[in-house]
Design goal:
- The protein is an alpha+beta fold.
- It is built from 16 helices and 12 strands.
- Helix 3 packs across helix 9, helix 10 packs antiparallel against helix 11 and helix 12 runs parallel beside helix 16.
Amino acid sequence: MGDVVRAPWDAYFVTGYDTCSEVLRGRNWLAPDFAWQERQADTERWEAVATQEMTKTLSRLNAPEHTCQRRSLGNLFDRSTIERLTPQVEEHVTRLLDELADKMRWGEADFVSTVSEQLPISTIGSWLGIPPGDYAHILEITHNQVHAQELLPTKSQLAVSAEATEQLRSYFTELVKQRRAGPGNDVLTGWIHTWDAREPDRDAADEILYRLTMFVTIASLETTATLLSAMVDLLLKEPGRWDWLRENPGYIDAAVDEVLRYDPPIHINTRIAADDTVLAGVPIAKDSMVHVMYGAANHDPRRNDDPDTFDVGRGGTHLTFGGGVHYCLGAALARLEARTLLTQLLKRFPTLRTVSPAGYASRLVFRRITSLGVTV
């Protein structure tokens, strides 16, 4: 149907790899921030509590506010940070796979609840200094909050998201308060020092700290958990693929990238035209929404030959982590978690197999695998 296709509502789907990349990297394509929302005729959707809250986070900000907050974070997961985190991630993986092994002694186990969901919250939680006893609560409210980020959320979904959003605000506001009272050797303490020096208004600084901490946490959870589950599911689907990768561990990074290309955790991202423009030959008016289709872009045969075949040796490319100023902050961390998990899985469970197909939540934008039965 073309690289740019009119949506049933006042927007466009962008499907081709190069065109999606142009939107993600172009300075004339903006995130749907408050300024844009205020110019819309139908404001009911944008006035939802969860939508308003997420619009304050880094992913919905444009310059200069986005630039300021992003610079305050620096390169969150640069090479030195990843090197420091690697032993911790390895310890988390070992512990979780011990639990998986214990469960599989009695038959099958759910890989999602035992490993995929627990590794990201353990990693980001220990990095930020979040008490482990709070992990289950954060996972639950994150699952509920993400409904507001769907393409066309229903009123009931927005209501669930609203309640979860209030819980997130309460939790992370209190976390910042506690860390002020008792500074530690963690990232959040460092952010507090940074923003106290940058912002003289303590309340304003704490509001920014809440948003940053909340956003970094929830952005690290469902997307990475789905990547980990999809990775195991796809690698076990074809007979011989698991054994081949065990014998060729040099392809582990390539396998992770092929999972990211083949079934990205996020399928759709939205941008706004800053001015009247033309995209792939289609006139786009200022303020129009365009929905960047990550899955479609990754399966563009002009970029990846035979795109619907899962091929670990492909060496292809993908847009799963986005591009431009909004390129995913946690890309390197997600790769680290996936690589570490897959390396240990291949060594410890040579006969691992699935016993039930992956179950998916009913979503369009944020993919979530809810269950995956495995055994040995």
